[in-house]
Amino acid sequence: MDRKKEIIEKALTHFLKNGSKIITMDDIANEFRLSKKTLYCLFENKEALLKEAIDLLWQNFLDEVTVIKSKEENPLLKIIAIYKVGIQNISNINPVFLFSLKKYHPDAMDVYKHYKVFMYENVVRPLLEEAKTKQLIRKDVDIELFHNINFEDIDEKLWKYKVFESYSIPQAIDYFVILKLKGILTKENFDLF
Q1: Fewer C-beta within 10 Å: the chain N or C terminus?
Q2: Three-state DSSP class for 137?
Q3: Tell me, what DSSP letter sits at residue 185?
Q4: How far, in Å, CA of 170 to CA of 176, rounded?
Q5: Residue 185: beta bridge partners?
Q6: pLDDT tens digits for 87-124?
Q7: Half-sphere exposure of residue 99, counting CA atoms within 13 Å on the CB side?
């Protein structure tokens, strides 16, 4: 593994655990026994490192999504499996990570938001449209409104309501994904999952 990728992976681990504000470039340089000059040759600044770390976070998730999409046939079961992995990943992230991005690193937050939009436009919406075409969900469902109300900010809701402190991951998946999808199923498919 090249040194830069190793730094990004380790920094991502720290950012996810402690947020972005508390970790400094000095901390990262010390961790890897690098001079600050060497670190700044690899990353223009902390924001650049954060952006690459967020990119890695999402690329890892998208790799998992690709595997799920190739294994499962039913578009709704694909959505459930994707959100199951997503919720499991979110459960391992300290909420301060996202809040510190919002407050101190707007450019890095834009990268995070970009991937959320990408997920909807390139993964979730096409799967919901496929489910509608296959008449698994009601034809009157407004997919974009459904997504915006139910899935758009699932990460923030999980943290806001401290779900992982009081509930299991299967319960979170049930309440945040499965029950919402059940609400739009056609009568014929109500027992699909």
Answers
A1: N
A2: strand
A3: B
A4: 10
A5: 137
A6: 999 999 999 999 999 999 999 999 999 999 999 999 99
A7: 11
